[in-house]
Amino acid sequence: MQIALSVKNISKKFGNFTAVNDISFDVEDGKFFSILGPSGCGKTTLLRVIAGFFQPETGSVEIGGKNMLGVEPNKRPVNLIFQNLALFPMMNVYDNIAFGLRRKGEKGKSVEQKVNSMLERVGLSGYGLKKINQLSGGQNQRVAIARCLVLEPSVLLLDEPLGALDAKLREHMKIELKKLQAEVGTTFVYITHDQSEAMVMSDYVAVMNAAHFEQLDTPQNLYSNPSSAFVAQFVGKNNKFIAKQRKDENGNFFAETKDGHSFKLSRPVDLKDDNSIELYVRPEAMIINPKVTKENFNILNVSVEAILFDGGNSRLLVVPENSKQELIVSLPQNRQFDYIKAKDKIKIGWDPEAAVCFNKTDGKIYEKL
Q: Which domain holds residue 159?
């Protein structure tokens, strides 16, 4: 597969502050690649280095196999879409899309054919004469993308383009963007702090934290096999236990919490400074009142604090006995749990293989903003 974008050992500083620290990655032609991370982690700075607005201290950027060192932003085969879209309100849809072509000196039938073809590809046939203020937020999004794609960039860079949309439209546009990218076949590099956007749309996701990549993988592997505590907390929801790792006389490993609970581990953590670890269990991995068939299944007695109804995403908020820690347990839709009420005492359990463990970090909870 041809490489559309190759970033090699890029570092960028502002004074003494390192915004991007020795990052390398390749994006295959036609793929949807996302960079996911919290505000301030350096993802927008990295995007602007790729676009040519910032010059890195070290490293190189290659687009379509060509080194972009010294190439001005307007001469690079990329286009950048910002959150505010930057459409021209005094122009109609047709003229917004045609703007870049005319700046390049194209005229007449060539412009007309390209604009009309692009309007059709983004699902806006017949909208050419409409004003920007006559369109919905989602339609404006398509116009902004069409204005970039009509110039046939090798790579389309998108910096949090759905951030200004309301929640319902954002959900809709995630699907629309994924379908559009698959149809047009252009390589997308997408910046976001919203893990749902990255997971739904992308072929590959790089999770960024404090100027570096924590993990670059498929959405499925990021979710199922996080390589660090940061990724485990930032991607999806997780229940977190702080514990000490212990080994019994039979060679089995356990996580023992300060509340007196002991959980079997599928494999030990390679400890660093001491035996403190973090154990993560997904809400959907926790089984309600399990009928245990495995000897090593972890069982926990809990009290139901609340039922959090949210249709297909409904959950229980529970607290283990002798503890104040709140845990989230998913309510599977293929079984009926209507009998469970607040203040009920129930059991939850999980297979040790469903949990992941890491050395204890600084204790910070990483918010998904």
A: 3-227
